[in-house]
Structures are given as C-alpha cells and as structure tokens.
Amino acid sequence: MVQQSETLQLPNWAPDDAPSDAGRPFVEWLMSPDAPQLEELDRHPAWQQRASCRGQPLDVFFPGENADYARARTICSGCPVRADCLEYALTPPIERFGFWGGATERERQRMRRRPAA
User: For residue 103, what are the β-bridge partners?
Assistant: First the structure.
C-alpha cells in the first residue's frame, strides 16, 4: 500500500510539468486543482475533471488501515459524477484501494459478487 508520504514513480506518459521529486507525490499532484486535463493521462476519463474530490487531501480517500471514510462519504454524496466514478472502480482493471464512487473497497467487493438482476 502506498503511504501518503511516499512518492510514486512517474509513468513514461506523465506530462513534463508533473512533479519528479520527493517533495510532492504524484497522486497528490494528480488530484490537485492545478493538475492537467485528466483525459491527457492514461485511463483518466474526462468526468474526473468535474469530481467533487478534486483538490481534496489524498488521505480522505486513501486513509490506510484504520479507515474512516466519513469525510469521503460526505464529499461523494453530492458529487455530480459519483455514478461514473463507481462504474470506473468496478470495471476491470478494478480499483482495489480507496474510496471510489461512494463505496469502500469492501462495499465494492460485495457489489461485484452480487448476481446481475
């Protein structure tokens, strides 16, 4: 699991202005309001530009072992792209960690196990 203080390696397709030093983790930069248009990056659909989580602290959606998702639930509850986000997280390759589309990892696991109606 990636800790907030860790710096992720930039993929080859990262824009030139993406952070390359340990001073600012890539995921934090990606969620910041000054990040580039996400459709420019691999597997980042345009709806993410309208997401309520843009600019929020990373640890709200990736809190670690003693997860408290209360703030994430509040932010997601009024998000205009919540359904898109949940669909994204449930579509392979599946997002395993964090809070996506108003659901925790465990909640998404249960959704995937349910038979289609």
Answer: 100
